[in-house]
Specification:
Elements: E1 5-6, H1 38-54, E2 62-66, H2 71-86, E3 92-99, H3 107-117, E4 121-125, H4 129-135, H5 143-160, E5 165-167, H6 172-186, E6 195-197, E7 204-206, H7 214-224, H8 242-256, H9 260-268, H10 279-284
Parallel strand pairs: 2-3, 2-5, 3-4, 5-7
Antiparallel strand pairs: 1-4, 6-7
Helix pairs in contact: 1-2, 2-7, 6-8, 6-9
Length: 304
Protein backbone atom coordinates (compact mmCIF):
# COMPACT_ATOMS: atom_id res chain seq x y z
CA UNK A 1 0.00 0.00 0.00
CA UNK A 2 1.42 3.35 -1.00
CA UNK A 3 2.30 6.03 1.52
CA UNK A 4 -0.70 7.84 2.98
CA UNK A 5 -1.09 11.25 1.39
CA UNK A 6 -2.94 14.27 2.74
CA UNK A 7 -5.18 15.68 0.01
CA UNK A 8 -4.23 19.23 -0.93
CA UNK A 9 -6.69 21.15 -3.07
CA UNK A 10 -7.15 24.84 -3.83
CA UNK A 11 -8.97 27.04 -1.34
CA UNK A 12 -12.74 26.74 -1.38
CA UNK A 13 -14.60 29.21 -3.60
CA UNK A 14 -16.17 32.25 -1.89
CA UNK A 15 -19.67 30.82 -2.30
CA UNK A 16 -19.75 27.46 -0.48
CA UNK A 17 -21.63 24.51 -1.98
CA UNK A 18 -25.10 23.76 -0.73
CA UNK A 19 -25.18 22.46 2.85
CA UNK A 20 -27.75 22.12 5.64
CA UNK A 21 -29.62 25.32 6.44
CA UNK A 22 -28.26 25.10 9.98
CA UNK A 23 -25.59 22.99 11.72
CA UNK A 24 -26.69 19.79 13.43
CA UNK A 25 -26.58 21.21 16.95
CA UNK A 26 -27.81 24.72 16.20
CA UNK A 27 -30.05 25.80 19.07
CA UNK A 28 -29.06 22.82 21.20
CA UNK A 29 -26.81 23.87 24.05
CA UNK A 30 -23.96 21.66 25.22
CA UNK A 31 -24.86 20.08 28.56
CA UNK A 32 -28.56 19.77 27.79
CA UNK A 33 -29.93 17.21 25.38
CA UNK A 34 -32.88 16.97 23.05
CA UNK A 35 -33.38 15.38 19.66
CA UNK A 36 -33.63 17.61 16.62
CA UNK A 37 -36.60 15.71 15.16
CA UNK A 38 -38.63 12.54 15.54
CA UNK A 39 -36.69 10.98 12.68
CA UNK A 40 -33.36 11.79 14.29
CA UNK A 41 -34.59 10.18 17.51
CA UNK A 42 -35.70 7.03 15.68
CA UNK A 43 -32.37 6.66 13.88
CA UNK A 44 -30.18 7.37 16.91
CA UNK A 45 -32.17 4.96 19.05
CA UNK A 46 -31.65 2.19 16.50
CA UNK A 47 -27.95 3.02 16.36
CA UNK A 48 -27.85 2.86 20.14
CA UNK A 49 -29.59 -0.52 20.06
CA UNK A 50 -27.00 -1.90 17.65
CA UNK A 51 -24.18 -0.43 19.74
CA UNK A 52 -25.59 -2.16 22.81
CA UNK A 53 -26.30 -5.49 21.12
CA UNK A 54 -22.83 -5.84 19.61
CA UNK A 55 -20.65 -3.71 21.90
CA UNK A 56 -19.72 -1.49 18.97
CA UNK A 57 -18.35 1.43 20.99
CA UNK A 58 -16.29 1.43 24.18
CA UNK A 59 -15.23 4.21 26.50
CA UNK A 60 -12.17 5.98 25.11
CA UNK A 61 -12.70 4.90 21.49
CA UNK A 62 -11.53 7.10 18.66
CA UNK A 63 -13.77 6.22 15.72
CA UNK A 64 -12.77 6.88 12.12
CA UNK A 65 -16.03 7.62 10.26
CA UNK A 66 -15.67 6.90 6.54
CA UNK A 67 -17.24 9.73 4.52
CA UNK A 68 -17.96 9.03 0.85
CA UNK A 69 -20.30 11.98 0.36
CA UNK A 70 -23.29 9.66 -0.04
CA UNK A 71 -26.38 10.04 2.11
CA UNK A 72 -25.58 7.11 4.39
CA UNK A 73 -22.14 8.38 5.39
CA UNK A 74 -23.58 11.78 6.34
CA UNK A 75 -26.32 10.10 8.39
CA UNK A 76 -23.77 7.83 10.07
CA UNK A 77 -21.62 10.77 11.13
CA UNK A 78 -24.52 12.81 12.52
CA UNK A 79 -26.08 9.82 14.30
CA UNK A 80 -22.77 9.15 16.06
CA UNK A 81 -22.39 12.84 16.91
CA UNK A 82 -25.80 12.85 18.55
CA UNK A 83 -25.09 9.53 20.28
CA UNK A 84 -21.83 10.93 21.67
CA UNK A 85 -23.83 13.61 23.48
CA UNK A 86 -26.12 11.16 25.24
CA UNK A 87 -23.98 8.03 25.63
CA UNK A 88 -22.33 7.20 28.97
CA UNK A 89 -19.28 6.08 26.96
CA UNK A 90 -16.92 8.91 26.05
CA UNK A 91 -15.62 8.58 22.49
CA UNK A 92 -14.13 10.75 19.75
CA UNK A 93 -14.95 10.95 16.05
CA UNK A 94 -12.74 11.79 13.10
CA UNK A 95 -14.40 11.98 9.69
CA UNK A 96 -12.26 10.76 6.79
CA UNK A 97 -12.81 11.19 3.07
CA UNK A 98 -10.59 9.38 0.57
CA UNK A 99 -10.27 10.72 -2.98
CA UNK A 100 -9.81 7.56 -5.03
CA UNK A 101 -8.93 9.44 -8.20
CA UNK A 102 -12.18 9.12 -10.15
CA UNK A 103 -12.93 12.19 -12.28
CA UNK A 104 -15.46 14.79 -11.14
CA UNK A 105 -15.47 13.55 -7.53
CA UNK A 106 -16.36 16.75 -5.67
CA UNK A 107 -14.34 16.39 -2.48
CA UNK A 108 -14.49 20.14 -1.84
CA UNK A 109 -18.25 19.88 -1.34
CA UNK A 110 -17.71 17.26 1.36
CA UNK A 111 -14.96 19.30 3.00
CA UNK A 112 -17.14 22.42 3.03
CA UNK A 113 -19.86 20.51 4.89
CA UNK A 114 -17.47 19.03 7.45
CA UNK A 115 -15.83 22.38 8.04
CA UNK A 116 -19.20 24.09 8.51
CA UNK A 117 -20.23 21.42 11.02
CA UNK A 118 -17.06 21.91 13.03
CA UNK A 119 -16.12 18.23 13.16
CA UNK A 120 -12.56 16.90 13.11
CA UNK A 121 -11.84 15.60 9.62
CA UNK A 122 -9.13 14.52 7.21
CA UNK A 123 -9.26 14.78 3.43
CA UNK A 124 -7.00 12.09 1.96
CA UNK A 125 -5.84 11.10 -1.52
CA UNK A 126 -5.24 7.52 -2.61
CA UNK A 127 -5.35 8.02 -6.42
CA UNK A 128 -5.70 4.33 -7.26
CA UNK A 129 -8.50 4.65 -9.84
CA UNK A 130 -5.95 4.41 -12.68
CA UNK A 131 -4.52 1.21 -11.19
CA UNK A 132 -8.01 -0.29 -10.95
CA UNK A 133 -8.82 0.59 -14.56
CA UNK A 134 -5.54 -0.90 -15.76
CA UNK A 135 -6.24 -4.21 -14.04
CA UNK A 136 -9.83 -4.61 -15.28
CA UNK A 137 -10.66 -7.42 -17.66
CA UNK A 138 -13.01 -6.70 -20.60
CA UNK A 139 -16.59 -6.43 -19.34
CA UNK A 140 -15.53 -6.39 -15.67
CA UNK A 141 -16.81 -3.63 -13.37
CA UNK A 142 -14.31 -2.02 -10.98
CA UNK A 143 -16.43 -2.35 -7.83
CA UNK A 144 -14.80 -5.37 -6.15
CA UNK A 145 -11.24 -4.36 -7.04
CA UNK A 146 -11.85 -0.76 -6.00
CA UNK A 147 -13.31 -2.01 -2.72
CA UNK A 148 -10.18 -4.04 -1.97
CA UNK A 149 -7.89 -1.07 -2.63
CA UNK A 150 -10.08 1.21 -0.51
CA UNK A 151 -10.23 -1.30 2.35
CA UNK A 152 -6.43 -1.74 2.38
CA UNK A 153 -5.95 2.03 2.36
CA UNK A 154 -8.38 2.56 5.25
CA UNK A 155 -6.79 -0.25 7.24
CA UNK A 156 -3.42 1.52 6.96
CA UNK A 157 -4.89 4.93 7.67
CA UNK A 158 -6.80 4.09 10.86
CA UNK A 159 -3.73 3.30 13.03
CA UNK A 160 -1.96 6.36 11.62
CA UNK A 161 -4.83 8.52 12.91
CA UNK A 162 -4.94 6.73 16.27
CA UNK A 163 -8.38 5.29 15.49
CA UNK A 164 -9.56 2.27 17.47
CA UNK A 165 -12.61 1.60 15.28
CA UNK A 166 -13.54 2.13 11.62
CA UNK A 167 -17.23 3.02 11.13
CA UNK A 168 -18.93 2.24 7.80
CA UNK A 169 -22.34 3.46 6.66
CA UNK A 170 -23.98 0.16 5.67
CA UNK A 171 -27.63 0.03 6.75
CA UNK A 172 -30.31 -2.64 7.17
CA UNK A 173 -31.10 -2.79 3.45
CA UNK A 174 -27.42 -3.38 2.65
CA UNK A 175 -27.39 -6.30 5.09
CA UNK A 176 -30.52 -7.81 3.52
CA UNK A 177 -29.18 -7.37 -0.02
CA UNK A 178 -25.83 -8.93 0.92
CA UNK A 179 -27.60 -11.90 2.49
CA UNK A 180 -29.42 -12.61 -0.78
CA UNK A 181 -26.36 -11.88 -2.94
CA UNK A 182 -24.34 -14.47 -1.03
CA UNK A 183 -27.25 -16.92 -1.07
CA UNK A 184 -27.96 -16.58 -4.79
CA UNK A 185 -24.52 -16.05 -6.27
CA UNK A 186 -21.85 -17.24 -3.80
CA UNK A 187 -23.30 -20.36 -2.22
CA UNK A 188 -22.91 -18.88 1.26
CA UNK A 189 -25.34 -17.94 4.00
CA UNK A 190 -23.77 -14.71 5.20
CA UNK A 191 -24.43 -11.00 5.46
CA UNK A 192 -22.46 -8.00 6.75
CA UNK A 193 -21.58 -8.30 10.44
CA UNK A 194 -22.23 -5.23 12.61
CA UNK A 195 -18.76 -5.72 14.10
CA UNK A 196 -15.73 -7.62 12.88
CA UNK A 197 -12.00 -7.87 13.41
CA UNK A 198 -10.45 -7.03 10.05
CA UNK A 199 -8.34 -9.64 8.29
CA UNK A 200 -5.22 -7.62 9.06
CA UNK A 201 -5.79 -8.31 12.77
CA UNK A 202 -5.25 -4.63 13.64
CA UNK A 203 -8.57 -2.94 12.95
CA UNK A 204 -12.13 -3.32 14.20
CA UNK A 205 -14.83 -2.43 11.68
CA UNK A 206 -18.30 -1.42 12.91
CA UNK A 207 -21.62 -0.77 11.15
CA UNK A 208 -23.73 1.30 13.55
CA UNK A 209 -26.58 1.73 11.01
CA UNK A 210 -27.23 -2.04 10.86
CA UNK A 211 -30.77 -1.62 12.27
CA UNK A 212 -31.60 1.54 10.28
CA UNK A 213 -33.60 1.21 7.05
CA UNK A 214 -32.51 2.98 3.88
CA UNK A 215 -35.84 4.79 3.70
CA UNK A 216 -34.90 6.37 7.04
CA UNK A 217 -31.43 7.46 5.88
CA UNK A 218 -32.97 8.84 2.70
CA UNK A 219 -35.59 10.80 4.64
CA UNK A 220 -33.04 12.13 7.13
CA UNK A 221 -30.70 13.16 4.31
CA UNK A 222 -33.56 15.18 2.82
CA UNK A 223 -34.41 16.66 6.22
CA UNK A 224 -30.81 17.73 6.80
CA UNK A 225 -30.28 18.79 3.17
CA UNK A 226 -26.92 17.06 2.88
CA UNK A 227 -24.77 17.95 -0.15
CA UNK A 228 -24.80 14.51 -1.78
CA UNK A 229 -21.72 13.69 -3.87
CA UNK A 230 -21.35 10.79 -6.31
CA UNK A 231 -18.12 8.79 -6.15
CA UNK A 232 -17.32 9.67 -9.78
CA UNK A 233 -17.03 6.07 -11.01
CA UNK A 234 -19.19 5.60 -14.10
CA UNK A 235 -19.99 2.00 -13.08
CA UNK A 236 -21.45 2.97 -9.71
CA UNK A 237 -25.11 1.96 -9.43
CA UNK A 238 -25.55 0.55 -12.94
CA UNK A 239 -28.97 -1.20 -13.16
CA UNK A 240 -27.55 -4.53 -14.36
CA UNK A 241 -25.21 -4.94 -11.39
CA UNK A 242 -26.19 -7.88 -9.20
CA UNK A 243 -26.66 -5.68 -6.14
CA UNK A 244 -29.02 -3.39 -8.03
CA UNK A 245 -30.99 -6.39 -9.30
CA UNK A 246 -31.37 -7.71 -5.76
CA UNK A 247 -32.26 -4.22 -4.50
CA UNK A 248 -35.11 -4.00 -7.01
CA UNK A 249 -36.28 -7.51 -6.09
CA UNK A 250 -36.41 -6.62 -2.40
CA UNK A 251 -38.16 -3.35 -3.21
CA UNK A 252 -40.87 -5.22 -5.10
CA UNK A 253 -41.30 -7.76 -2.30
CA UNK A 254 -41.38 -5.00 0.33
CA UNK A 255 -44.11 -3.19 -1.60
CA UNK A 256 -46.17 -6.39 -1.72
CA UNK A 257 -45.42 -7.34 1.90
CA UNK A 258 -44.60 -4.24 4.00
CA UNK A 259 -42.14 -5.06 6.75
CA UNK A 260 -40.47 -7.86 4.79
CA UNK A 261 -36.95 -6.43 5.22
CA UNK A 262 -37.53 -6.06 8.97
CA UNK A 263 -38.47 -9.74 9.00
CA UNK A 264 -35.21 -10.53 7.20
CA UNK A 265 -33.33 -8.57 9.85
CA UNK A 266 -35.17 -10.53 12.55
CA UNK A 267 -34.23 -13.78 10.80
CA UNK A 268 -30.56 -12.82 10.85
CA UNK A 269 -30.88 -12.46 14.63
CA UNK A 270 -32.71 -15.79 15.01
CA UNK A 271 -30.53 -18.42 13.31
CA UNK A 272 -31.17 -22.14 13.86
CA UNK A 273 -27.94 -23.97 12.97
CA UNK A 274 -29.55 -27.39 13.41
CA UNK A 275 -31.97 -26.59 10.59
CA UNK A 276 -29.20 -25.86 8.10
CA UNK A 277 -26.74 -28.16 6.33
CA UNK A 278 -23.38 -26.91 7.60
CA UNK A 279 -21.82 -29.99 9.22
CA UNK A 280 -18.69 -28.04 10.22
CA UNK A 281 -20.82 -25.49 12.03
CA UNK A 282 -22.73 -28.20 13.85
CA UNK A 283 -19.50 -29.87 14.95
CA UNK A 284 -18.08 -26.54 16.13
CA UNK A 285 -21.22 -26.12 18.28
CA UNK A 286 -20.77 -29.61 19.69
CA UNK A 287 -23.85 -30.99 17.97
CA UNK A 288 -23.52 -34.57 16.75
CA UNK A 289 -26.21 -35.55 14.27
CA UNK A 290 -25.47 -39.21 15.06
CA UNK A 291 -26.61 -38.72 18.63
CA UNK A 292 -30.38 -39.09 18.68
CA UNK A 293 -30.59 -37.17 21.96
CA UNK A 294 -29.12 -34.11 20.24
CA UNK A 295 -30.90 -34.45 16.92
CA UNK A 296 -33.04 -31.41 16.06
CA UNK A 297 -36.75 -31.61 16.74
CA UNK A 298 -39.09 -30.20 14.14
CA UNK A 299 -42.31 -28.51 15.10
CA UNK A 300 -45.30 -28.69 12.79
CA UNK A 301 -45.04 -25.00 11.86
CA UNK A 302 -41.51 -25.59 10.58
CA UNK A 303 -42.56 -28.08 7.93
CA UNK A 304 -42.28 -26.60 4.51
Amino acid sequence: MSELVQLKKPDLPPRPPERPKKPLFAGREVGSFRFGSKLERAIVRKVGEAVGDFDLIADGDRIMVCMSGGKDSYVLLDALRVLARRSPARFELVAVNVDQGWPDYETRVIEAHLRAEGVEYRMMSAEYARIVEAKLRPGQTPCSLCSRFRRAYLYDLAPALGATKIALGHHMDDLCETLLLNLFFSGRLASMPPKLLAEDGRNVVIRPLAYVAEEETRAFAAERQYPIVRCGCLSCGLPDQKRQVVKRLLGTLEAESPGLKRQMLAAMKNVKPTHLLDAKLLRSLGISMGNEEQAPVERSEEFG
